[in-house]
């Protein structure tokens, strides 16, 4: 198995079927539970499940009010309170959460190298870390991801990684199940995975149920692709676990767009990379830098 993906052993067919039957479960409970635990009543999976829309894993049901320890959240050494309960949100409230540049002041005085003006103008002055993911054209499923940091009044490219994106390429106006990755500029606010927090400053939700999610999405040979995750804030509520189901723009726009471990092929919307590369990003990204990701085909997002 390549790209840091290892097999942990398959699930019995009856268990997989039971998980799939919960794929259309209700949205996350709005109750005021303990903020150190992700809402375990209905955890959606990322944009990978071919037959069931954008989410890679179905809702993972647990007894109501059971206080499940399957998902726990650490706040990160440089983050806020780390609450991932997802309470108090309306999944169809209609607000556009694809970017939050409107609420963060003027555009950065120094444009990120190579970004077209439309996208450079969405990087606010407060941001000092930017990831840029691009493909040669809008139909490509292979891409590269560069990590830029602003220091000493200039942007420096720290590293560039090989990645995969949606198997049908990129779209600005993407929809549930169309196997495209959204074009735009998005915040990066939350992380998680099956494995323990590797030391990231982002709020991190460790969830023991993610291997079963990956098994439903890809089969037993790929049950470790969700070992580490960074949520891309497309149609989601920042400050919640990556698996939170809230979709502010509505279900049709899709959701669950993540950075996660690569499986050597195109995705249904996520951007994937090797384990060592994602762990490097997790160790480098800092919420105090107000990080953003700009992504799309090079003819669209680059000068």
The SSE order reads HEHEEEEEEEHEEEHEH
What Rg do the Cα atoms give? 18 Å
Average pLDDT rating: 77
Gap from first CA to last CA: 38 Å
Q: How many runs of DSSP E, i.e. beta strands?
A: 12
Give the overall shape, derived from the CA principal axes. Answer: globular
Q: Which percent range fits the helix content?
A: 10-25%
Give the helix tally. 5
Low-confidence segments, ≥5 residues, pLDDT <50? 9-45, 48-68, 77-103
The chain-level structural class is alpha/beta
Q: In percent terms, what proportion of residues is strand?
A: 15-25%
The biggest beta sheet, please?
10 strands, mixed
Describe the 3D structure.
The chain is of the alpha/beta class. 12% of the residues lie in helices and 22% in strands. It has five helices and twelve strands. Mean pLDDT is 77; it is low at 9-45, 48-68 and 77-103.
Write the layout of secondary structure elements.
Layout: H1 13-20, E1 71-74, H2 117-120, E2 129-135, E3 142-151, E4 154-164, E5 170-171, E6 181-182, E7 184-193, E8 204-207, H3 210-218, E9 229-232, E10 258-261, E11 271-273, H4 275-284, E12 292-297, H5 298-301
Parallel strand pairs: 2-12, 5-6, 7-8, 10-11
Antiparallel strand pairs: 1-8, 2-3, 3-4, 7-9, 7-12, 9-10
């Amino acid at each position: 198995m390549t790209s840091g993906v290892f097999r942990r052993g398959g699930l019995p067919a009856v268990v997989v079927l039971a998980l799939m039957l919960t794929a259309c479960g209700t949205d996350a409970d709005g109750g005021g539970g303990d903020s150190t635990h992700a809402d375990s009543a209905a955890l959606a999976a990322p944009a990978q499940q071919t037959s069931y829309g954008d989410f890679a894993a179905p809702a993972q049901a647990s007894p109501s009010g059971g206080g499940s320890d399957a998902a726990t959240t650490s706040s990160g050494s440089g983050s806020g309170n780390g609450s991932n309960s997802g309470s108090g949100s309306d999944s169809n409230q209609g607000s556009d959460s694809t970017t939050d540049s409107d609420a963060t002041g003027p555009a950065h005085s120094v444009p990120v190298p190579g970004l077209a003006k439309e996208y450079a103008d969405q990087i606010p002055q407060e941001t000092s870390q930017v990831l840029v993911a691009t493909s040669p054209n809008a139909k490509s499923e292979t891409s590269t991801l560069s990590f830029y940091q602003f220091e000493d009044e200039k942007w420096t490219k720290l590293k560039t990684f090989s990645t995969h994106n949606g198997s049908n390429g990129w779209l600005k106006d993407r929809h549930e199940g169309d196997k495209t990755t959204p074009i735009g500029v998005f915040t990066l606010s939350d992380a998680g995975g099956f494995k323990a927090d590797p030391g990231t400053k982002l709020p991190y939700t460790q969830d023991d149920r993610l291997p079963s999610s990956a098994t439903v999405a890809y089969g037993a040979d790929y049950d470790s692709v969700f070992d580490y995750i960074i949520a891309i804030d497309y149609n989601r509520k920042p400050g919640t676990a990556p698996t939170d189901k809230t979709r502010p723009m509505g279900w049709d726009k899709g959701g669950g767009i993540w950075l996660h471990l690569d499986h050597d092929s195109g995705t249904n919307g996520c951007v994937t990379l090797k384990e060592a590369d994602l762990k490097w990003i997790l160790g480098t990204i800092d919420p105090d830098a107000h990080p953003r990701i700009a992504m799309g085909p090079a003819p669209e997002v680059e000068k």
